[in-house]
Structure formats: C-alpha cells, structure tokens
Amino acid sequence: MKAVMYGAGSIGRGFIAQLFYESGYDTVFVDVNRELIDRINERGGYPLRFVDSGSSRDMMVGRMSGIYAQDAEAVTDAISAAGLMATSVGKNNLPLIAENIAGGLRKRRAVSPDGYLNIIVCENMIRANVYLKELICGYLTKEEADWMETHIGMVETCIGRNVPVMTPDLYGDDPLRVLAEDYTELPVDASAIRGTLHLKYIEPEKPFDFYIRQKLFMYNMAHAVIGYTSVMRGEKRLCDAVRIPEIRYLALQSLTESSMAMADEYGRDFRELLIYSNHLLYRFGNRQLGIAVPRLCQEPIRKVSKDDRMTGAARLCEKHGIFPSHICIGIAAGYCYDEAGDEESRELQAFIREHGIEKAVAEYSELAPGSELHEKICAFWRILQSGMP
C-alpha cells in the first residue's frame, strides 16, 4: 500500500508519516526542500525521538521515499496510485499544491474510476478541508468535481501532538531526526470519509465541529496567550514561560473561560474540559521539546482575527454570557507584538502607529468600537504598553 504525505515538515515527519508506517503503508513525501528529499531517498527513512519531561525513546520510521514538489508529473503519478494521502504544508501554501493534487485525481479517475481516496488535511485552520477542496475544484471540470465529491474524502483533522521546529541542537548528530511528544490521538471527521480509512490511532468523530474548535479555541488559544505575554518578558521557550506563575495563571484562566463556553456550546462536561486544560499546561512544560516562543507568536494578524484562536474564543465566550477578561489580555498582547522579522507584525504595528489601537482592533479583529470586547482589549493594550504588570 502506498501513501502520499504532501509536506515533510514537523507534522508530516513528526506525526503522520509515523502513523502511515505503523499502519503498513510505504510513504512518499512531497516537499520543496530538495536536500531533505534527497536525504530521505538515500536513507529510506528517518529517526523519530519521543521525548517527555525526563525520558525519551527512539524509533526508525521506514519504507520512505521522496519526490521534489516541482516535479509535477511524478507528484500526480504518486497521487493517482495512492491508497491514502495527507497534507501538512501550511494554509498559505495550499493554493500552491492544489493544481498538482487535481492532476493526480484526474489521473486516478482515468485508471480507477470506482476507487476511493481519503486525503487527511492537517492544516491549522477551521474547515481547511473545504478550503483545499475548493482550490482543487478550480482545476477540475464539473464532471471531475462531481466524481471527486463521491470518491475523494477531504477529511478534516486536528493535530494535538507537539512537534518543535527542528534546529541543529535538537537533531544533534542526525539531520533527519525529528523530536515529538509521545501523543498519538488523531480525531478525524467521520462524515467526510469515503469508503474506508485504515490508519492506526485515528478516532473518527461525528459531528466534528467540537473537536476542531477545541483544538483552536483551547490548545492554539493557550499557545498564543502564553506566547504573546511571555515574549514581552523576554522568554525564549514555551516550557520556561508556562512555569512563570503569572503566565501560567493567565493561561489557565483563559482556558477556563474557553472551557465554560465550549461546554455551553456543545453540551460537554465542563469538568472534562478543565482536566483537558490542565493536561495541556502539563504538556506545554515539556523541556525536551524546546518549542520556541517566537513560533507561537508569528503571523499575529491571523491570530487576532475575528474567527481565529483568541478573538474567536472570546466571541464564543461572549455568546454564552461569559466575559473573557483573561483571553482579552492575550489579544491585547498580540497587538503589542513587535517583531521586525515578521511581515504581519510590521504591518500591524505600522497600522497602530498611524491609526491607533481602537481602529486596529476594529479592523483586524472586526470588533465594533464601543463594544465591551473592543474596549477591554484596548484598555489592556494601554496597560501593557505602559509597562505595568
């Protein structure tokens, strides 16, 4: 059995390819990094190290090969013959891979019109599967798109495993090594599956909306709140930041606010969501992962936007009569993020300098001036800018 992994980065190698390997697939990576693809082809695999706070274990992920993403013919051939596929390339790169996927599906329809293929879309955005499907359909005829609807499963998932961006210090003596936490749960949208989906550790769930929002409004929201508040204190690593009492308190209270809203929205047990919240903070403290704070802060415009992790969670709280004071502090800290190397940060800070924080929150978070959320975020921004604790 063949599987295609579009994207050989942190999640591609640090999670999904491991599941493919343990499920019996031979995996073909597709990536723009030619040096990485060459190394995978030379070795036929790579080492994966699972790390906890005080221990580690290693496994070799094998039966691997790679294709350079610019080789469109090879990519479409691989997709046409695959039994399973996944993407993990980042939201901004999805438009760049849609044409190749469409070409692979076109070939697949010609040689196996009655077969099924499930594509697990591992991108950090709500309804990423729908977005990618729309991009792919832009390269298909109506007949091809109709066939895709019934034979190709665009399966949404939410990645819960922490995988750091690898650095020379982390990969040590092997440039192919990937570090990850030993966490294997992979919930997927059961309603999107076409045919059957054979993959170890998957948890088909229906309806799936709760799980994708739990990931975004709790896991990702807490990452952002910790990141933006701790970068102002000069912290470099998530594991150190989450041990600072004030930041840990802020994160836990933000998670509690979101937990109350999620419980009300989806009829879930509030106690179970609190347990999940505390477990998240424990996992964030994993020193061996070394997740960098700047990684949590990059692309602030996206992260303060209306439906994303912080403002989206705050709006859900407001919907259920819960005022998200602590999440608002995180949003305000996002508006303080000033990093010359981050294009979105430069744009955001330039807008604030020219138009002021009130217009910035109205523009980027789409919160009405005079609304309670808008006023609270602006007030917290001024407090943070003044240097008060």
Notes on the structure:
The model has no long low-confidence stretch (mean pLDDT 95). This protein has helices at 10-22, 34-43, 72-81, 94-111, 128-137, 142-151, 168-171, 209-231, 238-241, 245-266, 270-284, 293-297, 300-303, 309-319, 325-336, 343-355, 357-364, 372-386; strands at 2-6, 26-31, 46-51, 56-61, 64-68, 84-87, 117-121, 152-156, 178-180, 186-189, 202-205. The strands form 3 sheets. A 6-stranded parallel β-sheet has the order 5-2-1-6-7-8, sandwiched between helices. Strands 4-3-9 form a 3-stranded mixed β-sheet, covered by helices on one side. It has a two-stranded parallel sheet with strand order 10-11. The chain has 389 residues and is α/β, with parallel strands linked by helices. The N and C termini lie far apart (57 Å).
